[in-house]
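Pipeline run #58 for the internal structure catalog. This entry was flagged by the ingest filter as a single-chain record with no existing model, so it goes straight to prediction. Upstream metadata was stripped on purpose; only the residue string is passed forward. Reviewer on rotation: M.T. Logging verbosity set to normal.
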Amino acid sequence: MGRRYTWTHSAPIDVERMQTACSSLLGTHAFGAFCKQDPPPDDLHCTLYAAEWRREGRALTFEIEGNRFLRHMVRILVGTMVEIGLGKRPPEDLAHLLQDGRREAAGRTAPACGLHLLWVRYDS
């Protein structure tokens, strides 16, 4: 994929640390630390069914499945987990951030250039 569709990093990233952090995301949580707060969302609760990092050659892919996502939620989760992969935060930080709920405690927002919506399912 070209530069327009990926977020590149030159430092080595520990995918195992990021995958360990993902386990705390599964289930229903208030994702206040992982969403844009202006304007504040009416409901911070989302249920995540899957969250997984994969290495494909030199590329990393993050797939996430949930019942809904807040504004910038996936990008902030990715930015925070990249900090974990770079060793700037411990993997258990995601669980603490879910409890804390403050956006300023989470990591940076990953750029949108690497975000791809694969599919949407509507339940009736």
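catalog note: The chain has three helices and three strands.
catalog note: Helices lie at 15-22, 73-85, 93-100.
status: ready for reviewer M.T.
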